UniProtKB/TrEMBL annotation:
The active site is at residue 205. Intramolecular proteolysis generates 2 subunits, alpha and beta, which reassemble through a non-covalent association to form the fully active enzyme. The gene is LOC107654993. It comes from Sinocyclocheilus anshuiensis. The keyword Metal-binding does not apply. This is Threonine aspartase 1.
Amino acid sequence: MIFTSSGAGYHSESKAKEYKHACKRACQRAVDRLRAGGLALEAVTAALIELEDSPFTNAGTGSNLNLSGEIECDASIMDGKSLNYGAVGALSGIKNPVLVARRLLSETQKGKLSAGRIPPCFLVGKGAEQWAISHGIPACPSEKMTTKFSLSGYKRNKRKMELAEQVETKRKRQLCGHENDFGCLEPVGDIMVEGEENNSACLDTVGAVVVDREGNVAAAVSSGGLAMKHPGRVGQAAHYGCGCWAENARDVSLYSTAVSTSGSGEHLIRTMLARECSTAMQAENAHQALLEAMQNKFISSPFLAGEDCVLGGVIVLRCCTCGEVQRSEDIQALLVEFLWSHTTESMCVGYMSAQDSKARTHISRLPPGAVAGQSLAIEGGVCRLGTVSD
């Protein structure tokens, strides 16, 4: 089974079709791999490539531009069977960052390098790009990854920043020169960069979680990061335990879990939300466990005590073998629960099992009257013996 997200943020009705379509294509690509006998790691990689290639998502092609007008991407992937992990941060010049993360993961499984050196699992910047090319992953000029939408957004944001700087300069002059006897300085107002972390209108990280026919789980995540971010900034999509998590059950009494996060990178990093949600999924009631994790470990986290608007979302998958057929490796013997939760205004998700003829997609929204960054939505479903019910 595959469960995808094209980002937590705000999804307008006018573009809802495109975001849902991206999730559908990602699900189909992953299921095709599963039907062909592919393992979870292969399927989750296929899903992420599809999401990165969509010009409507903030990952790979169409990513936000940084302050210098360049694309720098973050991505990571984790294999629940081996517990190996690969990640890249602030990566430029590569069309599909998840492929580099996947290759890093694969290389770590081969053992030590010459002279006993330990192979890297996380590379950033120019070094990551050079490593990718040296391992057969083709380079891609940034201009080919830039879309009309991302470029126009960059130009608008640049004008807003210049205006904000002009207003701030004027404020400082008034303060120093006492130009305004009443102290009524011109307000900065709502000059906000599109895509700032406290602006949930920005669609952020894409992700996927998968369980294969053998019960192995895997998770992956990819992001273009914040609009107008400082060059070199690395978001949660590359950080261990923050962007994604996958862990096969080591005991029949435990659940296998896979998690992918989206939203405000710094908030997700400081709370290590992916791993926190995975740990919470060992409780008996998955829905209640995720609700409490999002409330206590994220919205009300002591690590975010100074924040009044905490934005993020998660997709979570957990599975276990059904009671009477615990020894079976057939996916039909698995009970799979999948849930999603978000504090942003909306989140687009898609899901599909190998027995389904097509993917199902949904744009989840906060309840009426709820405040983004302070409230949350939570939904989910169950896949049992090849049947899915919401």
